[in-house]
Design a protein that fits this description.
Oligomer: heterodimer
Distance between the termini of chain B: 53 Å
Number of helices of chain A: 7
Low-confidence stretches of chain B: none
Helix content of chain B: over 70%
Strand content of chain A: under 5%
Number of strands of chain A: 0
Radius of gyration of chain B: 17 Å
Number of strands of chain B: 0
Helix content of chain A: over 70%
Structural class of chain B: mainly alpha
Shape of chain A: globular
Largest sheet of chain B: none
Largest interface: A-B, 92 and 72 residues
Largest sheet of chain A: none
Order of helices and strands of chain A: HHHHHHH
Strand content of chain B: under 5%
Chain lengths: 180, 100
């Protein structure tokens, strides 16, 4: 087993552990930090798949998303102390909802894993052939070229979408007095 | 390392994300769960991309999905903050205006 495979396996384990912590932890602040660890681990896994640009994008999402979640979690926690507070619904309903959610999540995960594993003609990824590695090395240039040629409309549409998100966020966060 | 390992990781992440989104009460936790499921989808896309290394269309789609995930986080946090300032809670169970 090479060092790359060991690192990939460690990132995978870290990713699953942090995602499990997010699913069951009651503390929003610690969940936000675990969220960053999870996205960082996903970036490492994507790096092992030679998807460098995607890993960088996910790392950006991790940084920005974690800052946002930490900020809002701190605001919510400081005002309501929701970190250590349970929802106001009945305990039986809460446990039933949580149990059904966990069962449904496990069922979906097992179903997807079964569907993936039944796909035939899969080949090793890490340690692939040299020709495939050289083809992947030029993939960033190919992707950038496709963004500005074949998929220009989609690229522009997503740029407009991000712009609308930023403008909409500013409008939503505006105080009512600012309208005047 | 076999591609099946990545696909199993993807399925586990999607399962944990859906379970987290369905079982948590706070909107912020739901956002984190949905993002976890999206990360699982991205890992699957990147893994399947290795079978077609000369085609970048799938990776472009994966980048679009990453953009959508970021937009979801930003807008979700903003709406959570606005809702919290209006009603003083982020608990999904107390948002029952659409039930009546």
């Amino acid at each position: 087993m090479t060092l790359l495979e060991v690192m990939t396996f460690l990132f995978m384990v870290l990713c699953v552990l942090s995602a499990t912590y997010i699913a069951f932890a009651r503390d929003l602040l610690r969940s936000s930090i675990a969220f960053f660890v999870e996205l960082f681990s996903v970036s490492g896994v994507l790096l092992s798949l030679k998807a460098d640009y995607l890993a960088l994008a996910i790392f950006g999402v991790a940084l920005m998303g974690t800052v946002l979640l930490l900020y809002f979690a701190s605001v919510v926690s400081s005002n309501l102390r929701e970190v250590f507070r349970q929802p106001s619904t009945k305990a039986s309903t809460r446990h039933l909802t949580r149990g059904l959610g966990v069962v449904l999540g496990i069922a979906v995960g097992v179903s997807i894993a079964w569907a993936f594993l039944s796909v035939s003609k899969l080949r090793p990824v890490v340690g692939a052939s040299q020709s495939a590695a050289s083809a992947l090395k030029a993939d960033v240039h190919v992707l950038g070229d496709k963004m500005l040629t074949d998929h220009l409309a989609v690229f522009e549409l997503f740029g407009v979408l991000v712009l609308l998100t930023v403008v909409g966020t500013g409008l939503l966060l505006r105080k009512p007095d600012d309208a005047n | 390392m076999q591609i099946e390992l990545y696909l199993v990781l993807s399925a586990v992440l999607v399962g944990i994300g859906i379970a987290s989104a369905l079982s948590r009460g706070s909107i912020l936790a739901v956002i984190m769960g949905l993002t976890t499921a999206g990360m699982g989808a991205l890992v699957a896309m990147a893994a399947f991309h290795q079978n077609e290394p000369n085609s970048s269309d799938g990776m472009f789609f994966a980048l679009c999905v990453a953009t959508m995930i970021l937009n979801t986080i930003i807008l979700g946090c903003t709406l959570t903050y606005r809702r919290f300032m209006a009603s003083g809670t982020t608990n999904i169970g107390e948002k029952n205006e659409l039930r009546h």
